[in-house]
Write a structure and sequence with these properties.
There is one protein chain. Helix 4 packs across helix 11 (392-410) and helix 9 packs across helix 11. It is elongated, with a radius of gyration of 24 Å. By secondary structure, the protein is an alpha/beta fold. The strands form five sheets. It has a six-stranded mixed sheet with strand order 1-2-6-3-7-16, sandwiched between helices. Strands 11-12-10-13 form a four-stranded antiparallel sheet. It has eleven helices and 17 strands. It folds into two domains: 13-189 and 322-410, Zn peptidases (Aminopeptidase, 3-Layer(aba) Sandwich); 191-311, Alpha-Beta Plaits. A hairpin with a 2-residue loop joins strand 1 and strand 2 (69-76).
């Protein structure tokens, strides 16, 4: 998406309350604070965000999700009678991979970009949330409804931080999840399910391999079948557009332990692990049934094929469900208006690719808390890749979009 110049306005007290320099300082501090997911390192950043919210006068609460892992929540209380809005973002990040040419924790600003691990996914949006709250505090503009800033951990582990919020009763009428969409307003995204398919063979020493059935050979057939299969579900093109499969790993060897130190023996067990993305009108059960149907059909064509299909259950987490909000919902309209004012352009709206394939905490907020919302955030183009970065202009636009959206929704 091409970035458009800011629609700067004179004599707008609310937008004049935005402090781009302060927002960038916060973003750089967030990048410089390592917060890998699942290791407990998010807690330092959670405390930093609590400090920033306290400085603005927000009511704050720090919530332990797991030992030494904390959500940070701040509330800008409204005057009463308005709709409440939660700005929800995760502070946990992926680890640094190979290929970086800059220090991933320096928070380098160069060529109108800010670089760093997690800046796109999703510290830029999180910093913009704080910038929006700051704009209201500095401008003195009052909101009837509450504005809730929710900085959560463990989104990369199935959304455990947001689930904890919901269990603690911290919700709102509406939400914006700031996952990186390059500011597209995403109203539909896939559910994500991890599935394992195993093939069972017959082992022999290579001297008698004519008597064997290689689990690897039959796995090749399985992989081809899965790549070409169609999943059942609604025929609506938009709903079908989120269906996608990626086979992420293959293992093989002897026995279910898949011992691989004896290459002279034909492997009798192989397993693939894949991520299946699916949309409304489908479920974990229908996905598994579809795969099992294809495996049965394949075995009917080639009796060597024997398979087992298992969904990887996420202990303590609800079954994955797709997120969808009606295009005429009030929050969608508010987000569109805010985008247009913040950027001067026309908002991309709907099941926008590639963001429709992302999972997010929007599903939990919708299905478990009964909230209505959209997914819209800074970054995406350079997301989860070496030299991860976000355009400074888009980061500033995000702050304005969230500020205007809060004014529209909470007002």
């Amino acid at each position: 998406m091409a970035l458009l110049p800011f629609a700067f306005r004179q004599n707008d007290p609310l937008l004049d309350g935005i402090d781009d320099d302060a927002d960038l300082t916060v973003l750089r501090q967030m990048i410089q604070t390592k917060s890998y997911s699942g290791s407990g390192e998010e807690s330092a950043l959670a405390r930093i965000m609590i400090g920033h919210m306290k400085e603005l006068g927000l009511e704050t609460r720090i919530i332990e999700v797991e030992p030494d892992r904390f959500n940070a929540v701040g509330v800008l209380r409204g005057t009463g009678g308005g709709t409440s809005l939660m700005l929800n973002g995760h502070i946990d990040t992926n680890p640094v991979g190979l290929g970086w040419t800059v220090d991933p924790f320096e928070a380098l600003v160069r060529d109108e970009m800010v670089y760093g691990i997690g800046v796109s996914n999703m510290k830029a949006s999180c910093a913009a949330f704080l910038g929006a709250a700051r704009a209201f505090v500095r401008s003195g503009v009052k909101l009837p409804g509450d504005l809730v800033l929710a900085y959560v951990v463990g989104e990369l582990q199935g959304g455990i931080g947001t689930l904890k919020l919901i269990r603690e009763g911290i919700t709102a009428d509406t939400f914006i999840v700031g996952e990186p969409t390059d500011l597209a307003i995403v109203t539909l995204h896939a559910a994500s399910l991890t599935v394992e398919v195993s093939t069972l063979g017959v082992t022999r020493h290579l001297s008698k391999m004519e008597e064997s059935v290689s689990a690897l050979d039959t796995m090749v057939l399985v992989i081809d079948r899965i790549k070409s299969m169609a999943f059942t579900g609604p025929s609506d093109p938009e709903l079908a557009s989120v269906r996608r499969v990626n086979i992420g790993s293959v293992r093989a060897g002897l026995g279910r332990e898949m011992h691989d130190w004896r290459p002279g023996q034909v492997p009798d067990f192989a397993t693939i692990r894949m991520s299946v993305r699916y949309g409304p009108g489908q479920s974990e059960d229908t996905v598994i049934e579809d795969i099992e149907r294809e495996m049965s059909a394949l075995a009917g064509q080639d009796p060597r094929v024997r398979t087992e299909v298992h969904a990887r259950k996420r202990e303590g987490l609800p079954p994955p469900r797709a997120f969808q909000v009606p295009p005429d919902d009030a929050i969608v309209s508010a987000a569109i208006r805010s985008y247009e004012r913040a950027t001067g352009g026309t908002a991309p709206v709907g099941a926008v690719a590639p963001y429709r394939y992302y999972g997010s905490d929007a599903s939990h907020l919708q299905h478990l808390a009964g909230m209505s919302g959209v997914v819209c955030g800074a970054g995406g183009k350079y997301n989860t890749m070496p030299d991860e970065r976000v355009e400074l202009s888009q980061f500033r636009q995000a702050t304005r979009l969230y500020t205007l959206a809060a004014q529209s929704i909470c007002g």
